[in-house]
Amino acid sequence: MLTLAFDTATDVATSALVWDGEVLGELQSRPVSVLEDVDALLRRGGVRPRQLEGIAVGTGPGSFTGLRMGLAAARALSLALGVPVAGVSTLAALEAGSPGSLPVVDARRGEVFVLDGEPRVLAPDDVEVAGRHCVGDGAVRHRASLEARGAEIPPDDAEEHLPRARFHALLARDFGPAERVEPLYLRIPDAERTRR
User: Fold this and answer.
1) Which has the least CB within 10 A, 27, 69, 185, 191?
2) How far apart are CA 81 and CA 153, in angstroms?
3) Which of 11, 183, 7, 6 is nearest to 106 (CA)?
4) Distance between alpha carbon 188 and the CA centroid of its chain, in Å?
5) The pTM is what?
6) Do 14 and 164 form a contact (C-beta atoms < 8 A)?
7) What are the pLDDT digits (tens) for 137-184?
8) Can you list the domains of the chain with their CATH numbers?
9) Residue 115 and residue 75: Cα distance in Å, rounded?
């Protein structure tokens, strides 16, 4: 299956073109550049958009704005090309890139999103990390707190900290209509919080 995958939930967006498990191309940039990256991947891979068989998109949790950009791009491409979409958790993709690790995504507001059995939002001091290998931008941002409590965290520039889109393509299962794919927020958006 020829799959286009991307994730815009964190400050670094990743995208990949994957054919039956083989990565044909991969890019990283900013979430606002996801459609440019998609175009570049298709061109480099010699793939016409109509050849795509599926789109895998990161569903978070992560930045509200980033998630909306990624989901809007996936829905637009799906509608324009008639291609089914599957959502994949950003945390699951991080875990797939570093098996056995605890994925930790920066949730801002002094919190992190973690996948420890189920996705949760916690204060960094509330995450059980003793003896655990932690990956993700939340592990980098809260390194001092997590390491002080026994976490092992790779260097800031380690590959393991990125939710690589190739793993979204490999984890994607339930392809279908784009409108079925929903973001995983875990808390209300900042704008809603301010309004209340």
Assistant:
1) 191
2) 41
3) 11
4) 19
5) 0.93
6) yes
7) 999 999 999 999 999 999 999 999 999 999 999 999 999 999 999 999
8) 2-90+163-195 (3.30.420.40), 91-159 (3.30.420.40)
9) 26
